[in-house]
Specification:
42% of the residues lie in helices and 17% in strands. By secondary structure, the chain is an alpha+beta fold. It has six helices and four strands, in the order E-H-E-H-H-H-H-E-E-H. The chain has a four-stranded mixed β-sheet.
Length: 117
């Protein structure tokens, strides 16, 4: 099984997730979330595959999220506007994202990843 691993290389959680995948001998395509930010269409598809609300895809602990005061602004945005915003800057997106088959995992929760992989 080969999957897409979308991450921020400087992020300690992403590094842990990458080590996890390597230790489990899971083949993956490594993609930098900032240099190759997911497109609107990719995000729309992944959100659907994840069975999670769009807001779970926001990096709520990120500096940019706080600077933009998104906790308030998201309340009045449509789903389309939220996805457009996410696709505008990789630093707004929660990471890592693991895309495989018909499933998407966001954030690195080792128990969830072990169950799914």
């Amino acid at each position: 099984m080969e999957c897409l691993f979308v991450n921020y290389p400087k992020c300690s959680t992403c590094k842990k997730a990458k080590t996890f995948l390597e230790d489990k001998k899971i083949k993956f395509i490594d993609r930098d979330i900032v240099n190759d930010t997911p497109s609107y269409d990719e995000l729309k598809k992944w959100i659907g595959m994840s069975n999670k609300p769009i807001n779970k895809f926001f990096n709520t602990s990120g500096i940019l999220y706080r600077q933009m005061e998104l906790s308030k602004k998201l309340l009045n945005m449509s789903d389309e506007e939220k996805i457009k915003l996410l696709s505008s800057n990789g630093m707004l997106i929660k990471r890592p994202i693991l895309v495989f088959d018909e499933k998407v995992l966001i954030g690195f929760k080792i128990k969830e990843w072990e169950e799914e992989l």
